[in-house]
Amino acid sequence: MSLLEIKNVCASVGDKEILHDFSLTIGAGEIHAIMGPNGTGKSTLSYVVAGHPAYRVSAGSIMFKGKDLLAMTPDERANAGVFLAFQHPIELPGVTNALFLKTALNAKRRFNGEPDLDAVQYMKRLKARATALGVSDDMLKRPVNVGFSGGEKKKMETFQMAFLEPDLCLLDEMDSGLDVDALKIVSDAVNIMREKHRSFLIITHHERILEHIVPDVVHVMIGGKIVASGDKALAREIDKGGYEKYR
Amino acid sequence: MTHKNAGYGLDREYRYGFETDIDTDMAPPGLNEDIVRLISAKKGEPDWLLDFRLRAYRRWLTMREPHWGNIDYPPIDYQALSYYAAPKKKAGPKSMDEVDPELIKTYDKLGIPLEEQKVLAGVAVDAIFDSVSVATTYKSHLAAQGILFCPISEAVREYPDLVRKYLGSVVPPSDNFFACLNSAVFSDGSFVYIPKGVKSPLELSSYFRINARNSGQFERTLIIAEEGSYVSYLEGCTAPQRDENQLHAAVVEIVVRNGAEVKYSTVQNWYPGDKNGRGGIYNFVTKRGVCHNNATLSWTQVETGSALTWKYPSCILKGDGAVGAFYSVALTNNHQMADTGTRMIHLGKNTTSTIISKGISAGRSSQTYRGLVRIGAAAENARNVSRCDSLLIGGLCAAHTIPAQECAHPSGVIEHEATTSKISEDQLFYAQARGLDAEQAVGLIVNGFCREVMQKLPMEFAVEAQKLIGVQLEGSVG
């Protein structure tokens, strides 16, 4: 069974339709990449899947693990296993990363009928994951995304993702604004997370990130729909020739 | 009419019981000298205190209810209220099964232990209730160090010289309309005396909060910290409190002697009225402390209850080197109105004060921060730092900041910063995209907003207060 099945979706923000009759299927354990120029609807796609209230779906369906994703609230989608790593992570002043992740983890556990982790169990787990991904105690104690550099924000998004163990990871332009070293850290984390049941959708402008995270399928998205699909050779071709031939 | 800070479930029962069964230990409605004499006589008070009350009453007759606050309410008919009720036991529910399940749900959300829940809900408990004996143990522990902590009515009998010396010394009856009313008819409250050099080993009142509940609608608190002493005092309770008396006018007076420190923390969760703004407590409070040389007084408050709040805990920094602080979180929802803030009066040299105020408005509520920082002509090198942040939830609420500053000494420094922000859709979505439902997300963001102040609360209180914020915000999103 496919993990995510998007069928003929039309979606708009305000009066403007951005996704036109969009379809995409991602199987369990697959890594898909979507490439496309600015303003083509790539970020809209990730918001629509995650359930941002500003985006309205007027037609089509999205099934996740066989369930109707569009009937679920954003938090239900997250707890069911969808994770969106934001292109521009949001600041939550005064809310520490440690508290934020604890609240998120326990929300997911409750959703799955599991008891909350107590403070000791939680801290043990948090510390273990933080050490593995090179996240310092100091970063965990700081408020979410407040005073973090662009690279640190992306690193913390990746850390949240690794910690919450989602089944579908949507990476919205994770590579934008990252230097080579930061890109490697983020990519390594994704590669560590690769598992049979876990799927990724990597949204990017550049082929560069796909050198680090090798995708199974590459799609070209233009004007709110997919216009071409292929393997990673397609990404290289776009890197050389641009999107011109698909317009 | 019994004053009992009972829970939601009991309120109905009280009201009905009260209409059909007016007991003889209650004064008839209305206020006059005879009523004042009656209150004093019922309490067996000495002449000097009756005199204090009578002088206050006569003064009160010449005063007018203040209306400068940014709050709006129908006229209060002072002659329709009753000003004395003997504390007496009413038959409560026999077991938790008879208590309103909604109330129990709220207690659970706040994490209140079952035994305490029973007491709060008015369920009859065994005579050897654990926390009562614990309280007794602690009381003797305090007494051994010379710390006095008892109802003020008891202090009038046991330590009349102390009460007589200090009552009205910080907040004179003539101070304002509500303080004057309180001085005439105050019901009961707490008395604390910390001897010279003694550091109180306990957070006063946290262990006693259940026992110290029947203090009445005109509460009067007097705290005296002698030279070099220290005490942390907690007032209130996170559990929802109902009272059939709509008007509350409390007075708190604190004397902080040379080098002493008093931390006064409040969590106020009086019934705020229903979603449509019906009912709820009117809370008109006068709180003030005077700090002598190098003395420190901090007010920390978490205000979530009451339909109306009119309250300005203040510090008079009289001595040189005195330090005042005001840390406040005020949360209003539905139709609540709060006009609250502080006054820092710098009289001594090298005095410093800090104000951190966090206001959260939701629903159709309105909130005003009103502050005064005054640096007197003799207050050389006085400093104040103020920060007032407002957070708005939804588009129907209001927040106002009215800071007043007066500086009569050229060396004085007053800094004021203020911000107003809204919880953005992006913040909500970000938290939801991590699995938090909308209410959890708002609760977390709001608690983040007030974290700085929450951290000033004693640990146990802080945890409860955070949960309280979440509970109070329920229904404010969506």
Task: Describe what you observe in this structure.
- The complex is a heterodimer of chains A (about 250) and B (about 475).
- Chain A is of the alpha/beta class and about 250 residues long.
- Chain A is about 40% helix and about 30% strand.
- Chain A has one domain (about 1-245): P-loop containing nucleotide triphosphate hydrolases (Rossmann fold, 3-Layer(aba) Sandwich).
- Chain A has helices spanning about 40-50, 75-80, 95-110, 120-130, 135-140, 150-165, 180-195, 210, 230-240; strands spanning about 1-15, 15-25, 30-35, 55-65, 65-70, 80-85, 90-95, 145, 170, 200-205, 215-220, 225-230.
- In chain A, β1 (about 1-15) and β2 (about 15-25) form a beta hairpin.
- In chain A, α6 packs parallel to α7 (about 180-195).
- The mean pLDDT of chain A is about 90.
- Chain B has a domain at about 130-420.
- In chain B, about 50% of the residues are buried.
- The model of chain B is unreliable at about 1-25, about 125-135 and about 205-215 (pLDDT under 50).
- Classes of the chains: A alpha/beta (about 250), B alpha/beta (about 475).
- The interface between A and B is medium-sized, with 31 and 24 residues.
Number of helices of chain A: 9
Rg of chain A from C-alpha positions? 18 Å
Which architecture of chain A does the CATH hierarchy give at level 2? 3-Layer(aba) Sandwich
Helix content of chain B: 25-40%
Strand content of chain A: 25-35%
Question: What global shape of chain A is seen?
Answer: globular
Secondary-structure-based class of chain A equals: alpha/beta
H-E string of chain A: EEEHEEHEEHHHEHEHEHEEH
Quaternary organisation of the protein chains: heterodimer
Integer count of domains of chain A: 1
The largest pleated sheet of chain B is described as: 10 strands, mixed
- Our estimate of the beta-strand percent of chain B is 25-35%
What number is the mean pLDDT of chain A? 92
Distance between the termini of chain B: 40 Å
Count of runs of 4 or more consecutive helical residues of chain B? 13
Number of strands of chain B: 18
Q: In CATH's first tier, which class of chain A applies?
A: Alpha Beta
CATH superfamily of chain A: P-loop containing nucleotide triphosphate hydrolases
